[in-house]
Every structure is written in structure tokens, then in C-alpha cells.
Design a protein that fits this description.
Glyas_Bleomycin-R_OHBP_Dase, PhnB protein, 145 residues, 16% helix, alpha/beta, 2,3-Dihydroxybiphenyl 1,2-Dioxygenase, domain 1, PhnB-like, Glyas_Fos-R_dOase_dom
């Protein structure tokens, strides 16, 4: 079955954000490409953006969290976007707590981790980079759904 891998855009702080995500999820980056690594003469990158992230990938289980910095000439991304959330299916209540606690540092909690009306352990928040997340542990599925 195909995997769904979230891709997040940032306004120049992708590397900082991904180091934060790595501190919560663990693992190593599968890819870090900076704009300076590209040589596309018809699409020059401003000197002050050459160190910014063109693509970064952090494997998390079978999935990959990916992202980049959006070049200034393309406009800023909305840091208060509310059309989507990244949903994490934890394998245990303890893992759900660890991930929720780690990712909410410096962010804002919308729904604290607690037993939900639908029978799972659930919480929802916006992290300090403006990305919205949901963490869920369903004891019937144990991270498999």
C-alpha cells in the first residue's frame, strides 16, 4: 500500500524545525539539500538564501516527514494555516504522551491529551513553528491505523 508522507513549507526556519522534530522522534535525516547545492542558472538563488533548505527528509517509522524553506521570491507561507493537520497514530499511551509533550514545547495546546469520546487517547495542538498536529493512541489498533 502507498504511504502518505507530509511535506511542510517554512519561511526560512526549516532546519531549526526539523532539528526540533528529530529531537522528539529520533532517527537521522535521510536527506538535506540546500539551495546552494542546486545549479540552475535560469533560476538563481539569492546569496542570503543559499544556506536555506531546499529539501529535508526525516524518516519516522515507515513514513517520512519532509519539508523545505520557501524562497522569498515565491512569497511567505501562512504560519497560521488551519486547513490541515499532521496526525500521528501512536503505538502506546506512553508513546502518545512522549510525542505530545515533546512537540507541544513552545506551542499551543488546542485539546490536551485525554480519553476521547470515541475511545482513544487523543490530543491536538499547534507547535512552535505553526504546524498543527494530532496525536492519537487507539488501544484497538495500537498505531496500525
Amino acid at each position: 500500500m502507498a504511504l502518505i508522507n507530509p511535506y511542510i513549507n517554512f519561511n526560512g526556519n526549516a532546519e531549526e524545525a526539523f532539528n526540533f522534530y528529530k529531537s522528539v522522534f529520533g532517527g537521522e535525516f535521510a536527506n538535506i539539500t540546500r539551495f546552494k547545492d542546486l545549479n540552475i542558472p535560469e533560476n538563481p538563488i539569492a546569496d542570503h538564501e543559499k544556506e536555506k533548505i531546499m529539501h529535508i527528509a526525516l524518516p519516522i517509522g515507515k513514513n517520512v516527514l519532509m519539508g523545505n524553506d520557501v524562497p522569498e521570491r515565491m512569497g511567505r507561507v501562512s504560519e497560521n494555516e488551519n486547513r490541515s493537520k499532521i496526525s500521528i497514530a501512536a503505538e502506546s499511551k506512553e508513546e502518545a504522551e512522549r510525542i505530545f509533550s515533546g512537540l507541544t514545547a513552545g506551542g499551543s495546546i488546542e485539546v490536551p491529551m485525554d480519553e476521547s469520546p470515541w475511545g482513544s487517547y487523543f490530543g491536538m495542538f499547534r507547535d512552535k513553528y505553526g504546524i498543527e498536529w494530532m496525536v492519537d493512541f487507539d488501544p484497538k489498533h495500537k498505531g496500525k491505523v
